[in-house]
Amino acid sequence: MNAFIFSIFNGTLYGLLLFMISSGLTLIFSMMGVLNLAHSSLFMLGAYFAYTISKYVGFWPALIFAPLGVGVIGALIERYGLRAVHKYGHVAELLFTFGLFYVFEDLVQMVWGKAPVRYEIPESLDFILFTWLGLGYSAYRIFMVLASLGIMVALYWLISRTRVGLIIQGALTHPHMVASLGHNVPRVFMMTFGFGSALAAVAGVLGGNILGTEPAMAAQLGPIIFVVIVIGGLGSLGGAVIASLAIGILTNMAISYDISFKTFFIALGVSPDTVGVGQDLIAMTSGSIAPILPYLLLVLMLIFRPRGLFGTRDA
């Protein structure tokens, strides 16, 4: 029971972090129809900007100014990059953002070096908030949970309950009608992309000191972000929430229980003597395959439900 409780709680923490990272990409795709392959690079920039700013003025100003800086970069990318290649279709957009991914990775290595930087948890939140069943939970991790929940509620309210959200959605589906009402559709797209980039940077500011701030962090988290939005459904904010939590809890349960598959193989009549790979296959546990479970879910989802759990757009 303790392992179950730990798996649920820790999986929820990890799942909410995944949602915080993928929320900006979900917003950009659902509002603009652009699948940004460089989104994890914007997450990485947020972490590095926060590291640099926090050295001089502290963590809390970095939480404000780092997302603002990355948001401006995102707006410039849309204005002078994506807007130019948009007329050539989605393949051109994917190739453009794919190139940006490597550009940002090399720029980060040129400015901050190839080694990880010491981006640390702020002292004001670096303490154990409470202890549960012998395991202490830091105030900073609880702050991350509250921030993720706040972003989730704010995005839902923005998209479905405000005039701004209606204008953004209308600009995607009926751009000429929105323009005839006096709204600048290109500017709406630019601001939306900048806002989604800033959301990625917020995740970088909050998660960089937990996951580690290094040039490889974009490549490590980039694939799992797309797993989240594909399983949840392209363009579905609620689907991203459920997919993030499901992936976080599933992987943590697989590691916590570390179930051996030896009994399963023996029940099928398979033994080390009859299997070519021998003991390695028989000794396989759920913990050893935990890293590939999200991608297995991705494959199954694409086979049986390509639109995802709550997808509103076709792939």
What does this structure look like?
- With 315 residues, the chain is mainly α.
- The protein has a single domain, classed as ABC transporter involved in vitamin B12 uptake, BtuC.
- Helix content is 72%, strand content 3%.
- It has 13 helices and 2 strands.
- It has a two-stranded antiparallel sheet.
- The longest helix has 31 residues, at 2-32.
- The radius of gyration is 21 Å and the shape is globular.
Number of domains: 1
Tally of separate helices: 13
Tell me the major beta sheet. Answer: 2 strands, antiparallel
**Termini distance?**
40 Å
CATH topology name, in short, is ABC transporter involved in vitamin B12 uptake, BtuC
The low-confidence runs, each spanning 5 or more residues with pLDDT under 50, are none
Could you tell me the number of beta strands?
Answer: 2
**CATH architectural name:** Orthogonal Bundle
> What general form does the structure show?
globular
> Which class best fits the helix and strand makeup?
mainly alpha
Secondary-structure element pattern, one letter each = HHHHEEHHHHHHHHH
Strand order of the largest sheet: 1-2
Strand content: under 5%
Mean model confidence by pLDDT: 84
User: Rg to the nearest angstrom?
Assistant: 21 Å
| Broad CATH class | Mainly Alpha
The oligomeric state is single chain
Give the proportion of residues in helices. Answer: over 70%
